[in-house]
Amino acid sequence: MKRHDWSLQAVWHEFAAESGKSRYGSELDFSVAGKLTKQLDILLKLADYRANDGFMDTRKIWVQLRAAF
Question: For residue 20, what is the DSSP state?
Fold first, then answer.
């Protein structure tokens, strides 16, 4: 979705072995990007991994600012 100078994205991943039936978990990723001012952009990302047995759930958040002069 894109509205003016902003964009939103959501992606779902399923992790599994290439051979065999092993499944490692799933992850949902979100990102929002846009212009705060004429010279300043922001990018926010969230990755939420839900592990199957033997692995660890992980959640990460990124914030990125970019300035153009």
Answer: S
pLDDT digits (tens, 9 = 90+) for 18-57: 999 899 999 999 999 999 988 999 999 999 999 998 889 9
**Amino acid in position 40:** L
Q: Which residues, at least 6 apart from 13, have a Cβ–Cβ distance to it below 8 Å?
A: 26, 27, 28, 29
Distance from C-alpha of 68 to C-alpha of 52, rounded to nearest angstrom: 43
**How many domains would you assign to the chain?**
1
Task: Specify the residue for token string 């300035």.
Answer: 67
Domain assignment of residue 22, given as a range = 2-67
Tokens of 54: 């033997």
pTM across the whole model = 0.77
Contact 40, 18 (CB under 8 A): no
